[in-house]
Automatic annotation (TrEMBL):
Record membrane topology: Multi-pass membrane protein
The name this protein goes by in its record: Peptide/nickel transport system permease protein
Main subcellular location: membrane
GO terms of molecular function: dipeptide transmembrane transporter activity
Domain ABC transmembrane type-1: 95-300
Cellular localization per UniProt: Cell membrane
Keywords annotated in UniProt: Cell membrane, Membrane, Transmembrane, Transmembrane helix, Transport
SUPFAM superfamilies per record: MetI-like (SSF161098)
The keyword Cell membrane appears for this protein: yes
Lineage per the UniProt record: Bacteria, Pseudomonadati, Pseudomonadota, Alphaproteobacteria, Hyphomicrobiales
Amino acid sequence: MIALIVRRLLGLVLTLALVSLLVFTVMSVLPGDPAAIMLGTSARPDTLAALRQELGLDQPAVLRYLAWLGGMLTGNLGTSITYGVPVAELIAARLLVTLPLAVLSIAMAMVLALPLGIAAGARRDKPVDYGAMAFAQAAMSLPNFWIGLILILVFSTWLGWLPAGGFPGWQAGVTPAFGALVLPALALALPQAGVLARVARTAVVELSGDDFIRAARAKGLPPRLILWRHIVPNTVVPIITIIGLQFTFLIAGAVLVENVFSLPGLGRLAFQAVAQRDIVVLQSVVLLLAALVIVVNFVVDLCYLLLDPRMRDRR
């Protein structure tokens, strides 16, 4: 068990190193001078030279990569050209929005999807099944930014229950901050809930035909007891798999949703960095988002090993 975890951890470190090299290479081979891109074509030559020196662009690519990687490891990510503050401070402030948004979105998706998927699988080819799968198909078909606009129209404009956008900050209190995250989290959660509901239904249907379930029925166990004691616990592994994969789509969707709701998160920061040509911020944010996805997949892999002993025997 420990050897498996160590191998996975080494694979995690290697993957992060390769991703950092890929991000740096892509940023380095982009056409044009990064300093000229940041300052514009009308910048004076001495200003361009000063910025190139500040960014280390006058050094070889290998030294620039090692310096950037060392800065990532020590928390020194450089200074944003646009905002004039350390990039680490910018990212830390934006994480306080993006991480709670992601956790709330996943929680909402599970609360919506798991009861629907389990009920649909337990009542296959019945009205509950058709209704749940219709919801799942509709949720999967709609873009999350469009869902966000509809939620704003209904719950903010018409009903006035929740704010249409912006974030007051956690210093304003948990309730106002949480209220600002409800609608964007729901916009992110609905498409993921559709996928998760279908996976839960499929897992329940497949397990219902297994030998140990038929044996439980032959013993005369009540259907409700069979469902919650024998079927539902065995759906954990496929559900965890999908939740891990959904985190990638959630991060991608956050870029659009955070802009729709004007949330100061990592997705909006990445969008602003592209618009303002702040490459110092952009490469750090891209690497961090990739690292979050890699770490979540690593955690999901550990959950496999802890929840299913058969996975340990296969590796």
